[in-house]
Amino acid sequence: MSFRIIGTGSALPERIVTNDELSTFLDTSDEWIRTRTGIRERRVISTESLDDLAVAASQRALEAAGIEASDLDLIVCSTTTSDHIMPGQGCAVAAQIGATCPAFDLSAACAGFVFALDVADGWFARGRAKRVLIIAAEEMSRLIDWEDRATCVLFGDGAAACVVEAAEDGLLAMDLATSPDMRALAVPGIGGNSPFKEGERPASVLAMEGQRVFKFGVTTICSAVKRLCMEAGIEVADIDHFVFHQANERILSAAVSRLGLDDAKVGRTLETCGNISSACIPLTLDNLARSGALASGDLVAIVGFGAGLDTGSCLLRWA
Ligand code: UT7
Questions:
Q1: Is the pLDDT of residue 189 over 90?
Q2: pLDDT for 190
Q3: CA atoms within 13 A on the CB side of 195
Q4: What is the 3-state secondary structure (H, E, C) of 8-59?
């Protein structure tokens, strides 16, 4: 069994925060952020909720796929920043779009979208589902420390979704991996107020060893693309589009030069949206699909990487 993506959608917050605006309350500059990361601005939730964005992205994906919520057999939502600890973000979307299929959340940080695709593939293989809605919804602005200039300038908020349908072909290769590391990129946890809990309660803000994650990003993209090609029996040059996790322009350009890629084949949303964790990849796919850049039969290589340290990669033939 295999699958194809039959519809994509996305939704971003209204509020645009430029690098210049950040430099009004942080010791940073537009020049530093642009040259070190490639990010010019990001969208940040102010009046909307993450539910609003996840629902809007899902409705757009359903519309693009030409199906109704009642046609869905499963909803998987990749998020680390749900509006609700329970029920999950996927349940909140189901309630608002009128779906009655099973819905749950999946936490694999920036690689979450590919992990969710793999879950859908398993449901297709077991004959449990024909159509799955995959959502990636992230409100990174509630996880980051807005006083830490080394991390808060990197992230943004947003949601993207796609409808995936069981098919005879479409998936050429899929690979998930974890190199366990609880420090490189982490949000320690929820403190709570249990009177019985002893010891320190860590602050629930994102901490990152930037250079460690940077190196991991570059080597992971390169090795994942090579592995996908080997598995599918194709050359890197045969791939029409590369959709990589959007963490830093310097990570993308290092991978482009190491793999000898045609830069025009590499999708980008980083400059205007920053790093939206697992929503980056489906957002980039949605932009490519809506701009008409993805033609039927095109080969698309996807690589997500991040906290875990998790990697999810796959090679798809566009429907
Ligand atoms: O989803 C995956 C998540 N994250 C990533 O993939 C991030 C991967 N890492 C990176 O993108 C880069 O490591 C960063 C952008 C985070 C940092 O870039 P860098 O070139 O590795 O900078 P650095 O950490 O070596 O810092 C260089 C200098 C330091 O100052 P000193 O010690 O040299 O005086 C930092 O304090 O830049 C300073 N700095 C800043 N200056 C202005 C760090 N952040 C900022 C800032 N504005 N926002």
A1: no
A2: 79
A3: 0
A4: EEEECCCCEEEHHHHCCCCCCCHHHHHHHHCCCEEECCCCCCHHHHHHHHHH
Task: Provide the pLDDT for residue 185.
Answer: 93
pTM listed for this prediction: 0.96
Structure tokens at 192: 């709570």
Write down the mean pLDDT value for the chain.
96
Multiple choice CATH, 2-168, 3.40.47.10, 3.30.1490.20, 3.20.20.140, 3.40.50.2300: 3.40.47.10
Check: CB of residue 159 under 8 Å from CB of residue 82.
no
pLDDT above 80: residue 1:
no
Question: Which protein residues are within 6 Å of ligand 1, measured from CB?
Answer: 28, 32-33, 36-37, 110, 149-150, 153, 185, 208, 210-211, 213-214, 217, 247-248, 275, 306
Smallest CA-to-CA distance from 20 within 34, 35, 30, 31 is with: 30
Q: Which residue has the tokens 């592995």?
A: 227
